[in-house]
Amino acid sequence: MKVNINNSAELKTELVRLSRLRKEQEIYLGDQYTFLRNKIQTPSRVIGAVASNIPGFGLVKDVFSFLGKANSETTASSPSNTKSDWFTKVAKLALPLVLNRTVLKNSGWLKKSLVLLASEGAMGQVSKDKVSSFVGKIANFVRPEKSKKKHKKVKPLEEEEDLPNFGIPPNSETY
Q1: Segment Disordered: which positions (predicted)?
Q2: Is the model more confident about 77 or about 38?
Q3: For position 156, what pLDDT does the model report?
Q4: Taking a C-beta distance cutoff of 8 angstroms, is the pair 61, 52 a contact?
Q5: Could you tell me which of 97, 100, 81 has the C-alpha nearest to residue 89?
Q6: In whole angstroms, what is the distance from residue 40 CA to residue 50 CA?
């Protein structure tokens, strides 16, 4: 649509009309974007609501989200593991699986779910630093202490007799 502008008053009114049109289009597009974003996020919200009722799902989600990220910051969506590192998250996931496959092989679902909840709480106290310090203490206990070997034939430097020094005398001029 081409508008013929003959004077400055028509130019000003055309500028006002175009700025109003631009604002209306921005508002319309903003509303459409919000509508589309909500429509796309609806399946994710439904799956999240269903999955939040499954015990242990948040733990699995945290482990895999941590492995996908480069940093080790924890998310605000899971306040139970504010000090968790990768070892704690993997141990929380692996310990119930190992227990269910070995010790609780013929147990019922109630006993297995109680062990799942208890092991998540217990492994929350264990961190990578605690495990590495424990392994270090065991290694120091098992590792033999190094003893200094003393040679019987060679005297230490402090016990040597005064030998003549053939170097430069301390008060001589060397330049």
Answers
A1: 145-175
A2: 38
A3: 58
A4: no
A5: 81
A6: 17
